[in-house]
Amino acid sequence: MAIGDTRKHNRIDLIVSGRYDEGRAGGAISPGALIEKNSSGTYVVQADDGGIAEGNECIVASIDALQGKTMDDAYASGDLVPFFIPKAGDVVALRLKDGEVITTDDYLTSDGTGQVRLAVAAQSPIEGNLFVAMEALDLTSNGTFEFIKARKV
3-state SS string over 78-92? Predict the structure, then answer.
């Protein structure tokens, strides 16, 4: 596990000063996924590859610990999804896309499926890079996503 203590403590919001809220899922959503509000007012997996659409907030799905849920419990369409909107400097656990090789201090951006991926070198922090990796992680032969500890830029 990349962030073993995070799984042990069942946390997505590691150090967060941003706003917490909740809303109805408009499709399947997993804790640690980047999500967005759609035109019908429900929340879905964030679909913009390479960043967040202009005018949208960076939103991260959290865990419904009050209902006994864990990092591995996904939400179905219609479920109430707790989430938070991280501020710059906040530390979170995000779903890193399978096949990625990340080193500490790499910029991370949305992959368009709710997970994060390595940002392209040409992007500056304000051109779609949402987070900075706080740990190194190699998922080239993992076969699935893993949580990665990252700081909001």
Answer: CCEEEEEECCCCCEE
Best CA proximity match to 6, nearest among 137, 142, 140, 125 = 137
Q: Rounded CA gap, 125 and 50, in Å?
A: 12
Q: Which of 18, 21, 57, 51 is nearest to 37 (CA)?
A: 57
Q: Which amino acid is at 63?
A: I
Q: What is the pLDDT of residues 60-73, one digit of tens each?
A: 999 998 888 999 99
- Specify the residue for token string 């400097």: 89
Tokens representing 15 are 């150090």
For residue 111, the number of C-alpha atoms closer than 13 Å in the C-beta half-sphere is 16
Please give the model's pTM, rounded to 2 decimal places.
0.89
| Residues facing 83 on adjacent strands | 21, 61
